Amino acid sequence: MPSCPLQQGIKLAERIRKEIESTSFTYKETRIWVTVSMGITEYIRGQDLHQFIERADQALYRAKNSGRNRVVAI
């Protein structure tokens, strides 16, 4: 999200996570519940694209490893 401060990104990600968590989906006539983990980071001036994606990936794995269904920012 261009020009979006980290805290605003976290709030949006948390809203999305809660919406997914509270929505039931139907697959082949079976209700299923879905959760999502998200890694959030902020672009640091001078970072290249690889470094930026690597930081977001690290945040995602922290979210998964700390219990899933959460938003982690670094």
TrEMBL record:
It comes from the Bacteria. Gene3D superfamilies: 3.30.70.270. Residues 1-74 form the GGDEF domain. CDD domains: GGDEF. PANTHER family: DIGUANYLATE CYCLASE DGCM-RELATED, REGULATORY COMPONENTS OF SENSORY TRANSDUCTION SYSTEM. This is GGDEF domain-containing protein.
